[in-house]
Amino acid sequence: MKDQKSNQYSKLRFWSAGCSSGEETYTLAIEAHDYFGAAIISNGGLRILGSDVNTGVLQSAINGEYTEEQVDTIPAQLQKRFLLPASVGKNTPQRRINQEIQKLIQFRQFNLMATAYPIATKFQLIFCRNLLYYLHPKKREYLLRKLVDNLEIGGWLVLGITETGYKLDGMKKLVFSIYQKT
Ligand SMILES: C[S@@+](CC[C@H](N)C(=O)[O-])C[C@H]1O[C@@H](n2cnc3c(N)ncnc32)[C@H](O)[C@@H]1O
User: Fold this and answer.
1) What does pTM read for this prediction?
2) Ligand 1 midpoint to CA 135 (Å)
């Protein structure tokens, strides 16, 4: 079954835009690894981009270390497979994302307001959650257009749960704040 899924999707490209300290990006990678299985991972079929403008939060993302509290919504069996104990932190137990997950992800620093992005691919899935509401409507419109441009036809755009009601040309609303490129 898992091999069937990986054959069906031989080149998966996901993007967490405005990824902050990486929780969303790693969750995506863990869930995708669990769903699609080892075959797609080993043949380079899955690549995930995490991007943010802020180098400080991006460094935390690259480090991939979290407190127990931060990881406690990840199901126990996935924690066991993909999280390691880390030696940092005196009183707070820390967990580190394992290498199998880390190698699926590239974190990059760039501004989503730029005219061109340092990206050479289109994505089947873009998460851009809890960022748009910081932006002036004109900038929001600009960013939404850029995100749609960077999606493959049929690809999904996932916004924050409360980020509804935006006008998205060329996109069909699936449910809540999840849209599909037509
Ligand atoms: C509230 S956080 C959301 C993090 C994550 N998406 C989530 O929902 O948990 C918003 C992030 O967007 C980033 N951001 C804001 N404006 C940006 C821009 N113009 N380009 C890239 N990242 C930006 C911020 O640095 C911050 O890390």
Assistant:
1) 0.92
2) 11
